[in-house]
Fold:
Amino acid sequence: MKYLYVGAIAGIGAGIEREAYREVRERVAAGFGAPVRELELPGVEFAYDAGRRQYGSIPVLEMLTRLCPADALKLLAVGGQDLFIPVLTFVFGHAQLGGRVAVISLARLRQEFYGLEPNREIFLERAHKEALHETGHTFGLVHCADRSCAMSLATNVRQIDLKHAAFCAACAAQLRRGLREQ
Ligand SMILES: [Zn+2]
Ligand SMILES: [Zn+2]
Structure:
């Protein structure tokens, strides 16, 4: 039996961030139809870039690869740290394409980040969509041209909000093949 592990990176907030982590765990379990296990992950201070005041997602993925349990189908980490890769200002998340590990950041999913009124439902929806997206990459799914598909590329929250928290028919079919091959 292989499990879909969903792990909280140390430092995740006790309030709404914890709630988002729990929601992601439950919704992702339903989305991929795999049994889910929880994992508490260590902090990622080693990935901190003082110049950018952000955390490198590549070293975080390397840590996840080391910590990925033997019985893990995939490991999705959820953190509050703002992530980046060197060529981009930031990333909402990062995954090993066709690999075992992925990470999502909650840092830029809140309305407050953009100077707007807090909205719990919007925040949780965005976290769910990004979790589906990054986990989808680990099953080999690439970016989809359908703007409503969870696998479409989002570089801002407006694009996340346009997506559905589901895969289009083509991506869903590819995902089913990916799940069978695991
Ligand atoms: Zn992507
Ligand atoms: Zn699609």
About this structure: The radius of gyration is 15 Å. The chain is about 35% helix and 20% strand. The chain has one domain: 3-181. Residues 3-181 form a domain with the Collagenase (Catalytic Domain) fold (CATH 3.40.390.10).
